[in-house]
From TrEMBL:
Keywords: Amino-acid biosynthesis, ATP-binding, Kinase, Mitochondrion, Multifunctional enzyme, NADP, Nucleotide-binding, Oxidoreductase, Proline biosynthesis, Transferase. Its EC number is 1.2.1.41, 2.7.2.11. It is found in: Mitochondrion matrix. Residues 32-290 form the Aspartate/glutamate/uridylate kinase domain. GO terms for biological process: L-proline biosynthetic process. This is Delta-1-pyrroline-5-carboxylate synthase.
Length: 758
């Protein structure tokens, strides 16, 4: 805790040797000294007369937040001319209105003309007011601000440079935010082409060049340039083909088309790029972003510092492979080629992948051993996640069997006709299955997920982006290599891409123009985070797997312990494992109940008592904190219910609509349970662990969905398909079907083509 002016604030351990800019966005969170440059379009209103107060207040709030984290913030601001223009116009109008009222009467006021105001005069009139506004805003966060006005001469005169440098360092030391601006009241007009002549020379002709010069002089870690465009584009912003450039490298100027200059201010985008490259060369990282967009301006600065994908990031380090945007485009193109293959060719790819999983078993297990050793050394993975991370010969054999099931069942998945209708004579309509497009599958600690999901994507003709956890990096790498090897036999290697860049999951969820469906495979927290982050992209999955087993009064003694043991103990980390055991009240203190408790004790299952169950016991186990808990380990909750109806109500209130089971010999009771429980999977006298794509005969699954549209339960090939409509006519037009037209609608159902059931 540091204190200044008796105001405490928390500091962060931020320090690094200056001289080299950050290579990746994810490193920006380590930036200690930051310059924020506010362009004229950001600070001024749309009418160019006066300040955008709401936007400015939001920027001050973000800068204050970062300052109070222990960072050293500096602001290079425009706005003095606009603020002065507003004040001078008001004074001129007031003066003219008095004179004209005395000489010409009120009728002449509407004809008054505002003279063209000289920029230097506006700056002189606006600088004090602008600074007073900044001071008032920063005071709300107990932060002091100080104004510094500079000109080009201040950087060329060695003594003045040292004085400026010393002043800024002293202000930063005292936790004061310096607010710097060119002294537009006295600055001469810029000389054309006089700037950016080398590393040590850049003339201050606008606030872009001032910010760059200041950033390098002060050995700043990060320069954030806010303007009224999102960043750099490969064609003029607003054009149909314009794409935002996420990362810009020196030498990429040829790939950028500069549009027109900002509506206000002296520096256009070309000036910003030149200044940014100069600062980058001097060791300062740069991001150019939009500071005017109402949806992002309230957090644009903090988002940049957190490493989120905002604007254009300038980097001197080019990645070895393609960007995630390029991978998305490759997956899209590869997926379309994959969908155009014959079904036998797609099946051949999957059969080849299944063979590779067994043929290359030793290499796969060796890579997996590296992941396990690294995870154990770091000690960050819980035991259930370590179990998920582990591969074995039996797991690989099961994977291969599942893949062959997928290949065998996928012969007529894509292009299958599911409806045929004769609209009118010679006008036939078909509804056929087609791939969804590009899938993004995000998975944690589950390398076996990669070949499963890849096979399902191949069978359904979808392009695929895979984002695995860092803990399974070695396993994922070799499994992806084998997948691409299998795809290569028909020239569609690019259809499945493994994202190896430092892309954050939240950033991937924003690629709505590249991704059509997100499928998370992992913890409930991961799924919730993705559902929250995904803007405009549907998410298929379940946030929790709170599965119930209800033991009815008519349950078979032989079946109860077997089903409960399998549901809870066979693989407690799975999402389809038992979490809450519901027992009919009449079974308490019976031999059957004692057998259940004894079995759970032998299996070392920790029991948590529900409120009603605890009330029946003198000495009860620890009472459950919440009946809506997914333990993912050898733990479960036991609760008591009075009837099957109450069991159904409990499941609806505390369950997650995943998988729920009844154990009973009473068929009427069982059917009531099956019909009334509103979950994706509802079983009678069977373990919850059967809720699985492989066990359902789907070959594998991309996940289990608890949503109520499109796909529900274990999602196999069918869940990765959508449909399109094909209409075949012969010179048909709608006007022929009008009241006095020559044609009539038939709407006759036609037989479907015979399916290939081999």
């Amino acid at each position: 805790i540091r204190c200044w002016s008796n105001i405490p604030f928390i500091t962060m351990p931020l320090s690094r040797a200056h001289g080299k800019s950050f290579a990746h966005r994810s490193e920006l969170k380590h930036a200690k000294r930051i310059v924020v440059k506010l362009g004229s379009a950001v600070v001024t209103r749309g009418d160019e007369c006066g300040l955008a107060l709401g936007r400015l207040a939001s920027i001050v709030e973000q800068v204050s937040m970062l300052q109070n984290q222990g960072r050293e913030m500096m602001i290079v601001t425009s706005g003095a001319v606009a603020f002065g223009k507003q004040r001078l116009r008001h004074e001129i109008l007031l003066s003219q209105s008095v004179r004209q009222a005395l000489h010409s009467g009120q009728s002449q006021l509407k004809d008054m003309a505002i003279p063209v105001l000289e920029a230097r005069a506006c700056a002189a009139a606006g600088q004090s007011g602008l600074m007073a506004l900044y001071e008032a805003m920063f005071t709300q966060y107990s932060i002091c601000a100080a104004q510094i006005l500079v000109t080009n001469l201040d950087f060329h005169d060695e003594q003045k440079r040292r004085n400026l440098n010393g002043t800024l360092h002293e202000l930063l030391r005292m936790n004061i935010v310096p607010i710097i601006n060119t002294n537009d009241a006295v600055v001469p007009p810029p000389e054309p082409n006089s700037d950016l002549q080398g590393v040590n020379v850049i003339s201050v002709k606008d606030n872009d060049s001032l910010a760059a010069r200041l950033a390098v002089e002060m050995k700043t870690d990060l320069l954030i340039v806010l303007s009224d465009v999102e960043g750099l584009f490969d064609s003029p912003p607003g054009s149909d083909d314009a794409k935002l450039i996420d990362i810009f490298y020196p030498g990429d100027q040829q790939s950028v088309t500069f549009g027109t200059k900002s509506r206000v201010g002296m520096g256009g985008m070309e000036a910003k790029v030149k200044a940014a490259l100069w600062a980058l060369q001097g060791g300062t990282s740069v991001v150019i972003a939009n500071g005017t967009h109402p949806k992002i301006s309230g957090h644009v600065i903090t988002d940049i510092v957190e490493g989120k994908k905002v604007g254009t990031f300038f980097s001197e380090v080019k990645p070895a492979g393609p960007t995630v945007e390029q991978q998305g485009e490759m997956a899209r193109a590869g997926g379309r080629t994959l969908a155009a293959l014959q079904p036998e060719q797609r099946a051949e790819i999957i059969y080849r992948l299944a063979d590779l999983l067994t043929d290359q078993r030793e290499e796969i297990l060796l890579a997996n051993k590296k992941d396990l050793e690294e995870a154990e050394n770091k000690g960050k993975l819980a035991l259930p996640l370590l179990k998920r991370l582990s591969l074995s010969t039996s797991k690989l054999n099961s994977l291969a069997i599942g893949l062959r099931q997928i290949a065998a069942s996928s012969q007529d998945s894509v292009g299958r006709v599911i409806r045929r209708t004769r609209i009118a004579k010679d006008l036939d309509l078909e509804q056929v299955t087609v791939p969804i497009g590009v899938l993004l599958v995000i998975f944690e600690s589950r390398p076996d997920c990669l070949p499963q999901v890849s096979a399902l994507a191949i069978a359904s003709g979808n392009g695929l982006l895979l984002k695995g956890g860092k803990e399974a990096a070695h396993s994922n790498q070799i499994l992806h290599h084998l997948t691409q090897e299998a795809l290569s036999i028909h020239g569609v290697k690019d259809a499945v891409q493994l994202v190896n860049t430092r892309e954050e999951v939240e950033d991937l969820c924003r690629l709505d123009k590249l991704i059509d469906l997100i499928i998370p495979r992992g913890s409930s927290q991961l799924v919730r985070n993705i559902q929250k982050a995904a803007k405009g992209i549907p998410v298929m999955g379940h946030s929790e797997g709170i599965c119930h087993v209800y033991v009815d009064t008519d349950a078979s003694v032989e079946k109860v312990t077997r089903i409960i043991r399998d549901s809870k103990c066979e693989y407690p980390a799975a999402c389809n494992a038992l979490e809450t055991l519901l027992i009919h009240r009449d079974l308490l203190r019976t031999p059957l109940f004692d057998q259940i408790i004894d079995m759970l004790r032998v299996e070392q299952v920790k029991i948590h008592a529900g409120p009603k169950f605890a009330s029946y016991l003198t000495f009860s186990p620890s009472e459950v904190k919440s009946l809506r808990t997914e333990y993912g380990d050898l733990e479960c909750c036991i609760e008591v219910v009075d009837s099957v109806q109450e069991a159904v109500e409990h499941i609806h209130k505390y369950g997650s609509s995943h998988t729920d089971v009844i154990i009973t010999e009473n068929e009427k009771t069982a059917e009531f349970f099956l019909q009334h429980v509103d979950s994706a999977c509802v079983f009678w006298n069977a373990s919850t662990r059967f809720s699985d794509g492989y066990r359902f005969g789907l070959g594998a699954e991309v996940g289990i969905s608890t949503s109520r549209i499109h796909a529900r339960g274990p999602v196999g090939i069918e869940g990765l398909l959508t449909t399109k409509w094909l209409l075949r006519g012969d010179n048909h037009v709608v006007s022929d079907f009008s009241e006095h037209g020559s044609m009539k609608y038939l709407h006759e159902s036609l037989p479907l083509p015979q399916r290939n059931t081999n």
